Every structure is written in C-alpha cells, then in structure tokens.
Amino acid sequence: MCSTGRRRSGIRPPRGSSEPASGGAGTMAERETEGGLAFERLVFFSDAVFAIAITLLVLEIQAPHLGADSSDRDLLAALLGLLPKLIGFAVSFAVIGSMWIEHHRIFRYIARYDDGLLWRNLFFLLVIAFMPFPTALYSENHRVGAALALYAGSLAVAGLAKLWIWRYAAAGGRLLAADVAPSDVRRVGRRSWAVPLTCFGIAALGGAGVSSAYLGFPLIPLAAWLLDRPKGAARKATRGGA
C-alpha cells in the first residue's frame, strides 16, 4: 500500500528507496498531471540555467561607441567588426536552444528520478553554464584554430552529457514512463548523437589549424535529420523513386 500510494500521489521515492525504477512509473499523461514538486524543481532549475547561459551570450556583444563626428561608414565598419561575435552568438543560441528543446523532450518521457539522474543532469548543466566562455573566446579569436576547437569541443561535451542522461534514464526503462514506445527510445538516442559527432569533427579540424571548419555547424540539423530516420527508410525511398 505504501508503494502504491506513493506512486498515485505523484511523489517520487526518497533517496535510497528500494522501489524498482521500472515498475509503476506511470504514463506520460500521469506524469504531467501528478508529477511531484521535487521533479518539477529539477526541470525548472534546468530551464533557469539555460536561460541564464543564453542571456550571458548576448552580454558579450557590446554596442560600438562612436564619436560625435562619426559617419555612417564608421558605424558600418564598427558593426562589421562585431560580425564574429554576432556569428558566435547566433551559432551558440541555435545549438544551446536545440539542446534545451531536446532536454525538454527527454524529460517528457522521464517519469521519475534518482540520484544518478540528478548528478548527470547537473553535469550537463555545468557544461551549458560554461558555454558563454568558449563562445566569447572564439568570437575574439575566430582565426585561431585552437579557439574553434575549444568552442566546438565544449558543444560536443554538452551533447554527450545529454546523451548520458538519456541512456541512463532509458536503460531497461529505469526512469521512463510506462507508455514510452521502444521506437521513441531508439529515436531519441539516435538524434542525441548529432551534436557530439558533428562538433567533435569540427573541433578536430580546428585543432589541426583549419579555421574554416566552423562552416560545419550547419551540418548539425542535417545530421539530426539523418539520424532521426529509422533504419531502412533511405533504402525504401530509393526503391520507391526507382
């Protein structure tokens, strides 16, 4: 009765509980309507870290200060000088924003938590909170391959940390809602490789001195799309068009 009552009330088992994680996790709908306050605090804290990290990104962009006798050409030149910072902000905003969306989707499938999930999520947020620094470093030194390597490598580590969360939660259905389909588990796992694979490749090229490797960032959504496709989809499409 104690175990059943705790699940129906939406309160997660306390630390050290012997209640099996794979049993009685409830459906996603039940999680949304009966989720305990402690679990929601985890999600809200994560959202706050994302919001602060994205806000800090734009604070690195300072408006140019021109003299009273400055011309439009001077302003244009100053704005062009900010272009590397603007590009760094745009890329970081897009990638971190996509990670927030994926993080949100992942936690829609998760019905309960334990200390393992808390620590993995905290490590993921650590990397997200760190991102304004490599973004600023790369924006100021965009021609230096090592700066690009650190920037892309940090994004890759963040992607791996998110994948770490998912693999832990999904292992044997440990923390997932009861109605999560196996196909969804596989799909989320595949998509989670898009950022690490792409960004590690960019970091490797940047470390080798290829400063133009940043052109690989637009490949992230393409990689996510390709990884999102179920096995055999490409072959079926090819046969259908033949």
Describe the structure.
The protein is mainly alpha-helical and 242 residues long. It has one domain. It has twelve helices and no strands. The termini are far apart. The N terminus is likely disordered.
Question: Which helices and strands, and how do they pair?
Answer:
Blueprint: H1 2-9, H2 28-34, H3 37-59, H4 72-81, H5 83-109, H6 115-130, H7 132-140, H8 145-170, H9 182-191, H10 194-207, H11 219-228, H12 233-241
Strand content: under 5%
By secondary-structure content and strand pairing, the structural class works out as mainly alpha
Rounded Rg: 22 Å
Helix content estimate:
55-70%
Order of helices and strands: HHHHHHHHHHHH
Largest sheet properties: none
Structural descriptors:
242 residues; mainly alpha; disordered N terminus
